[in-house]
Design goal:
Layout: H1 17-20, E1 23-25, H2 36-45, E2 61-64, E3 82-85, E4 101-102, H3 109-115, E5 118-120, H4 126-134, E6 138-139, H5 148-160, E7 162-165, E8 172-173, H6 175-190, E9 195-199, H7 206-213, H8 225-235, E10 238-241, H9 250-257, E11 261-266, E12 283-287, H10 300-307, H11 312-328, E13 349-353, H12 360-365, H13 371-382, E14 387-391, H14 394-397, H15 407-410, E15 416-417, H16 423-429, E16 432-435, H17 439-446, E17 451-453, E18 466-467, H18 481-491, E19 493-496, E20 503-504, H19 506-515, H20 523-545
Parallel strand pairs: 2-3, 2-5, 3-4, 5-6, 9-10, 10-11, 13-14, 13-16, 14-15, 16-17, 17-18
Antiparallel strand pairs: 1-7, 7-8, 11-12, 12-19, 19-20
Length: about 550
């Protein structure tokens, strides 16, 4: 019987295994391409075998079912410290172990081997290969210990006994490419461990959220905040919330009950449509300590930017990603269209980017600035002689959110209003970009533009922006733009490919957004767009009637 490839895809729920497959078994392949460098990559990423599986703790001796464990190997151990791993896909038949206890079908072999003092398995078994890579003693059926050279040769044979493919394009790739893909998947899955329930997730996001929060075994159920807290407390786990959609006392109640919170929000490369327009997210962030837009307390992103060791390889990946984003012309909501406005050639030009007045990024990261009107007045005060163009937020412009300013009010402080020019082209044409806490400031930094910040967004305080708000004492480390990109676009968010529905990297998301790949237009999205147009019509009509 042909063995499954050592490097293989997790069983992503709802995804055809043939779509998700990154390898297929093949006989008679050469081992010449299997280098020690590849082994180092595998160990660093901890991928291979069922790396997404159960993680039993306290097991010191591990054996594959059918391989006897000598009695002397178990001296001083209790049954719970001796684990018998069923044969792959055995079906979990009820069998009693003479020594030790049976583990669940589908365990993470890296967790098992790393804590074990001895492994009992055939040399080409996943357990034995990982034992050899980690330097743990591996014994065969006769009780003899395998030499490290024997285990490494078995690992080369297993890795060579497969052909590898890019699951997003179908193109053939080498094993190193697959290891990098599995490493991203492992990071995604590991980040979801210990979440007992999800609350506040809009019903039209839930399909995507199930994929985003899958932990290798299951996705958390969607429950009310009260029921979610009860489940999380009972299981000693976390509750995932969409902060703006749960009761305001949820976080304090969780703290009182000793329940940790994981906040879920849209990522920075989101989709080809507005969230307020009910387009499901292609990217989210899951933050265990805070959330990126709340400057009043630490967040996972802030801590990452303050402490991460940015390796040359990671910074180079970020540089290439940044160039890809800029070349593709994508922003948070995809590609842009429209007619560029005329800018005066003989004056300093400034772009002032509006936001949603009641958005949490304004409330928690606005540093006391009171919405769009206050922001616009501050821009004029900071740039008294500049030609200022005001850009309203797309959700406000679409009629979905608060923050609308009449043209007359805007023109008391600005020289022009624009809502149709390609935003990134406009960003690159002006002399300065002013933001409160808008993501446009980050997108402008990626394009090498000068940015003045009136609030305290995640990208302020690192030496890349002119900061008008009081700086946070938690920041102050100097970063370059590619280190910022590495943290904000590679390490912090999760991405979901709109074509395969598999977790993917930011590079593929940029390509999908640039090519127009997107989930289908639903009746709900069409209804939401009509609702926004009606609301905007009523707002403009009221302005007209009241002069």
């Amino acid at each position: 019987m042909t063995m499954m490839p050592f490097l293989r895809s997790p069983p992503f729920p709802g995804i055809d295994p043939d779509v998700a497959a990154i390898s297929h078994p093949v006989a008679g392949a050469s081992v010449a391409a299997i280098s020690d460098t590849l082994f180092d990559m595998i160990v660093a990423a901890r991928v291979g075998g069922d790396f997404w599986g159960h993680r039993p703790r306290g097991v010191q001796v591990v054996a594959r079912a059918g391989i006897a464990i000598p009695a002397e190997a178990c001296v001083g151990l209790v049954a719970g410290q001796i684990g018998i791993l069923p044969l792959a896909r055995r079906g979990g038949a009820a069998v009693s172990a003479k020594i030790g206890h049976f583990l669940p079908v589908g365990c993470d072999p890296w967790t098992l081997v790393a804590q074990a003092r001895a492994i009992y398995a055939q040399p080409d078994d996943d357990l034995a290969i990982i034992g050899g890579l980690l330097g743990v003693a591996v014994f065969g059926a006769n009780g003899d210990r395998f030499a490290p050279e024997r285990l490494r040769a078995a690992a080369r044979d297993r890795l060579a006994a497969a052909i590898y493919r890019d699951c997003f394009t179908g193109a053939p790739v080498d094993a190193a490419h697959v290891v990098a893909q599995l490493a991203d998947w492992r990071r995604h899955i590991d980040g979801n461990r210990g979440i007992a329930a999800a609350s506040g997730m809009a019903f039209w996001k839930r399909e995507a959220i199930r994929h985003f929060l899958w932990d290798g075994l299951d996705s958390p159920p969607f429950l009310s905040a009260a029921r979610g807290l009860a489940r999380a407390r009972q299981r000693g786990a976390a509750l995932a919330i969409w902060p703006s959609r749960v009761p305001s006392d949820t976080v304090s109640e969780a703290a009182a009950k000793g329940v940790s919170i994981a906040r879920v929000e849209d990522g920075f490369l989101r989709s080809r449509g507005l969230g307020a327009g009910l387009h499901p997210p292609g990217s989210v962030v899951i933050d265990r300590s805070g959330i990126y837009y709340n400057a009043r307390r630490p967040s996972d992103l802030e801590t990452l930017l303050a402490t991460q060791i940015f390796t040359p390889a990671l910074v180079d990946r970020a540089r290439r990603l940044r160039n890809r984003v800029c070349a593709a012309g994508v922003t948070k909501y995809g590609l842009e269209a429209g007619q560029m406005i005329d800018l005066p050639a003989d004056r300093r030009t400034v772009l002032a980017v509006g936001q949603v007045d009641d958005d949490m990024s304004v409330q928690l990261g606005g540093a006391g600035v009171g919405g769009n009107l206050d922001f616009l007045a501050r821009v004029r005060k900071a740039e008294p002689d500049a030609w200022i163009v005001y850009r309203p937020h797309p959700d406000v412009q679409a009629g979905h959110r608060k923050g609308h300013l009449s043209d007359a009010v805007v023109l008391e402080h600005a020289d022009a209003i624009d809502s149709g020019a390609p935003l990134m082209e406009l960003v690159q044409r002006v002399d300065e970009v002013h933001v409160l806490s808008s993501l446009t400031g980050f997108e402008a930094l990626m394009r090498g533009r000068s940015v003045t910040v009136h609030g305290m967004p995640f990208y302020a305080g690192w030496g890349l922006t002119r900061d008008l708000a009081k700086p946070s004492s938690r920041r102050g480390r100097l970063l370059d733009v590619d280190q910022l990109v590495a943290g904000a676009l590679i390490l912090y968010p999760r991405y979901l490919d709109p074509v395969t529905r598999l977790p993917c990297g930011p590079e593929l998301m940029v390509d999908r957004m640039a090519s127009g790949s997107t989930p289908p237009m639903t009746w709900l999205i069409r209804l939401r767009a009509l609702q926004g147009k009606l609301r905007r019509f009523m707002t403009l009509s009221a302005e007209f009637l009241h002069g």
